[in-house]
Predict the 3D structure of the following.
Amino acid sequence: MKKVILPFLLLSFTFGKTVNAANPDLRAPYAILMDFDSGRVLYEKNADESVPPSSMSKLLTIYKIFSLVKEGKYSLDTEFTVGDEAWKKAKAMNANSGSTMFLEYGEKVKIEDLIRGIIVNSGNDATIVIAENVSGSESKFVEELNELSKELGLTNTHLENASGWYDKKHLMSTRDLAILSRRIIKDFPEYYHYFGEKEFLYKKDLTGNKDNRNKLLWIMPSADGLKTGHTTKGGYGLSSSAKKGERRLISIVNGIKGTNPSYARFTDSKTLLEWGFKEFSNYVYYKAGDKVLDIPVWFGKNNTVAVGVNEKILITSQNGKTPNIEFRATYESPIPAPIEKGTKVGTLTLYIDGTKFNDYDLITLEDMKKCNFIIRIFKNLKQIVLNIVG
């Protein structure tokens, strides 16, 4: 395995005028701001503490059902039945100020309506109906959600129920919520529009819970998601995202209590998102298909093959600051021919200011055929001679 270090200093990586902006002033005791494209964290405050996520944990249920629909196991028109246990649990929650889309025992409800009922109405009943129809019981569904959280890299998450109802063991960190929110937007762009809906009225004669609880959709025009959360012990929180031009940011605030805490989660989120848009910019270092380097080839028609990346490598930096950028390529050398275009042959690792940030696949950008038999013999003899001389 050969390692090659490709250092680059971005001497012109300065966007706008130099600023020395203070961090945003937030009420939230737990917060994080992440750039969607690069995944870089721009601001964090107690971001790794596991705290009650309240209904924001419903995002794991949403991720799960989006996955099942995208895989073809269900369609958006598939109907789930409201079972006895789901109805009883939801009814008890509703009696204690829980959120609902007013489902009744025995009803058949389309998955699309249940998704909207969770996202817009924060319906506990909708969440439990999905859990029981997908997995047979809410407890089994929660086991699957905890496994899913591990697969997604959520290291400070453990759920006890599907709805986010308060339990001292039902916990998530704001970093995990940001990672999950990013994955929802990235993995399911075709379904993301549901998060921007301002109202959903499932039953025409029951209008008490039709408006989206995410009021950031009204007070910040560029905002288009994601999910509110509130329990008495956990406080008020919000997973939000906004897009300006080509840039998207993700913000999580949680644990807000005191005076007017519900509104504070929206003003905190707006402050954090606007600060991120103003103080940071993105730079595309490599585009998908760009050449990074040439790697030696054994018995190929050419001595080297061009390799690059199959995805955009984008770097987020604070305006007026120039980060030290370093790429380290790791690959086997030489690579034996034949080689097909698009074959993974190594890894490109990005370091920002000396800290590892991300790994990217190095792929071949062209086909490489074997040279003919006579040339292979000549190259083999040449290599033997070089080894003897060396």
Observations:
- The radius of gyration is 26 Å.
- The chain is about 30% helix and 30% strand.
